[in-house]
Amino acid sequence: MIDADLLLSRSRRPLVLGIGGGGDVVGALATAEACRLHGAHPMVGGVTWERRPIDPQPGPRAESEIEGARRLAPGVMAASSGTQVRESGVRFAEARMAELLGEETVLVDATLGPSQLADGLASAAGLLGSDLIVFVDVGGDALAHGDEPGLASPLCDAVLLAAAARLAEHGVTVLGGIFGIGCDGELTPAEVLARLAEVGAEGGLAGARGLTPAVARRLEEAVKVVPTEASAQALRCFHGEIGPATIRRGRRTVQLSPAGALTFFFDPVAALRSAARLAAAVIDARDLEHANEILHGLGVRTELDYERDALHTVRQPSN
Fold first, then answer.
1. Measured between alpha carbons, how far is 304 from 33 in angstroms, rounded to an integer?
2. Which residue in 93, 109, 209, 239 has a CA-CA distance of 20 to 30 Å to 289?
C-alpha cells in the first residue's frame, strides 16, 4: 500500500501536476508548497489545455503550437513566464505560475495518449531529478464512473490518470490526488467521497492533507494571477465558508465545507481497478482524440465536445 505522508516527506524533488487543465496547476501548488515547507524543491505543472474564456480554440495545444518553452522530452516542456501559443499569444496558466514562483514549471502536451505521456514524463522526471510524480485533480472527476449528472470534463483527467498508472507499471513512483472535493461543480462532494471509498476498498487510499495557513497564503497569491474558480473555492472552504455557492457564471453549484480544503491521496493503479472507470477505459488510447471516441462509446460527453459545440454555435451566421 502507498503511504502519501512517507512519499511526500521523503521526496526531495517532487513533480506535482494539475491534470484537469487550466487552473488545476493551482491545486497542484497546494501539495508542492507543503513539500517545500519541509525542505523539498518541488516543481509544479499542468497540461496544455486552457478553458474557452482563455483560449477559444477547442482542445489542448500540441507541443508544435507552443513557443517560449524548453523541451524536456517528447510532449513535456519547461515553461517560463513567456510560454504561450505561437499564433494567438495565449499564455498558459503554467506560464503565469512560473512568473509568480520565479522558476520554471512543467507543461504537458495533452493531445497525446497515456503511453506517450508516460514515456515523456518518465524521461523528463529523470532529467529534472524528480523522485516522485503527483497527479492532482481539482474537484474529483478523475475518479468518475461516467454517469454522474454533473460530469462535464472527464477527458483530460482520465487520460492523465491513465498515464500515471502506466508510469507505475514501469516502476516510476507516482501518487494521485484530489484537491477541493466537489469544488469544480461537477461531481458532488458525496459522489467524490463515494469514489474515494471505492479506491479505499481496493487498498488504494494513501492519506489526506489539509491546507495550512502558510500554504493557503501562497495559493491566495496564485489565484490572483492564474484564472481559476475551482481552486479558489477550496480557499473559501479553508476560511470557513459553508453551504452552496455558484461558479461558471451561475451555471454550476459548489457545496462548500471544510472537506474542500483537503487533498486526498491515492494509488493510481488501485483507482483504475476500482472507481476510475473512465481512466481505465482510455488506458490504451492512441491519443486524446481516440480517448474521446472511447468515452463516446460509453455514452460520455466530454469537455472537448462542449468546446467544439460552443465554437460551432459562435460561428453560426445570424438570421
1. 31
2. 93
What residues have CB less than 8 Å from 209, skipping those under 6 apart? 4, 5, 8, 31, 34, 262, 263, 265
List helix spans (H) across 60-113.
93-101
Is residue 253 within 8 A of residue 246, CB to CB? The reply is yes
Alpha helices in 148-188 (DSSP H): 155-169
β strands within 49-153, DSSP E? 66-73, 76-85, 105-108, 132-138
DSSP 261-293: GEEEEE-HHHHHHTT-HHHHHTTT-SBHHHHHH
Partnered with residue 15 across adjacent β-strands are 43, 133
70, β-bridge pairs: 78
The sign of the torsion formed by the CA atoms of 272, 277, 279, 285 equals: positive
Query: What pLDDT score was predicted for residue 316?
Result: 57
Length reported for the chain: 319
E strands along the chain, which residues?
A: 14-18, 43-47, 66-73, 76-85, 105-108, 132-138, 174-179, 205-210, 243-247, 252-256, 262-266
d(CA 137, CA 263): 9
State whether residue 241 is helix, strand or coil: coil
Grid coordinates standing for 84? 504561450
For residues 24, 30, 32, 33, the Cα torsion angle rounded to the nearest 10 degrees is 140
Low-confidence ranges of the chain (pLDDT < 70): 314-319
What are the tens digits of pLDDT across the range 233-244?
999 999 999 999
Q: Compute the distance between CA of residue 256 and CA of residue 182 in angstroms, rounded to an integer.
A: 8
The cell numbers describing 221, all together, are 497569491
Residue type, 271: A
Distance, in Å, from the CA atom of 193 to the CA atom of 178, rounded to the nearest integer, reads 10
User: What's the mean pLDDT when you consider all of the chain?
Assistant: 95
Separation between Cα atoms, residue 80 and residue 78, nearest integer Å: 7
Indicate the residue type of 59: G
